[in-house]
Amino acid sequence: MLFRVAAIAIALSLSACSSWVYRIDIPQGNYLEQKSIDKLQVGMTKEQVKFILGSPVVVDAFNKDAWHYVYKFKSGRNKKYNSKKAFILTFKEDKLIDANGDFTLPENFYTPFNEVTETEKRKEKFKQ
């Protein structure tokens, strides 16, 4: 009987120490920063986007023109540090046409990439 009580007491005391066990942080997916998102513009090719953001975690099997950048962080310390972020890019004819997700798009996102501005047109006109 004394052995059973001692075994139970040891088991309970060891389970109380489980909070002292070190648990690692687990990051999964593509970690994106806002400064990388700020470089995106409509009209960029898939290669240009891949250069800026890296390869996507998920390329939709049914829609090759949709790239999904997903990031999940599981903290080993506390659940309040856990986070999830998703960012989806849509292409048409190998050009970026739309983006949405957990990041804010820059002001110049909808300005087509490599578009000739009015001031550049005027400069070209005066050169001739």
- Average of pLDDT: 84
Percent strand equals 25-35%
Question: What structural class do the secondary elements suggest?
Answer: alpha+beta
Number of strand segments: 5
- Low-confidence runs of at least 5 consecutive residues: none
The general outline is elongated
Helix content: 25-40%
Indicate the radius of gyration in whole angstroms: 26 Å
Order of helices and strands: HEHHEEEEH
Total number of helices: 4
Largest sheet features: 5 strands, antiparallel
Compute the separation of the termini in Å.
104 Å
Account of the 3D structure:
With 128 residues, the protein is α+β, with helices and mostly antiparallel strands. It is built from four helices and five strands, in the order αβααββββα. Strands 1, 2, 3, 4 and 5 form a five-stranded antiparallel sheet that branches. A hairpin with a 6-residue loop joins β2 (58-59) and β3. The chain is elongated.
Keywords:
128 residues; alpha+beta; 29% helix; elongated
Please outline the helices and strands.
Blueprint: H1 2-16, E1 26-29, H2 34-37, H3 46-53, E2 58-59, E3 66-74, E4 83-92, E5 95-101, H4 118-127
Antiparallel strand pairs: 1-3, 2-3, 3-4, 4-5
Summarize this entry quickly.
The protein contains 4 helices and 5 strands; from the N terminus they run H-E-H-H-E-E-E-E-H. By secondary structure, the protein is α+β, with helices and mostly antiparallel strands.
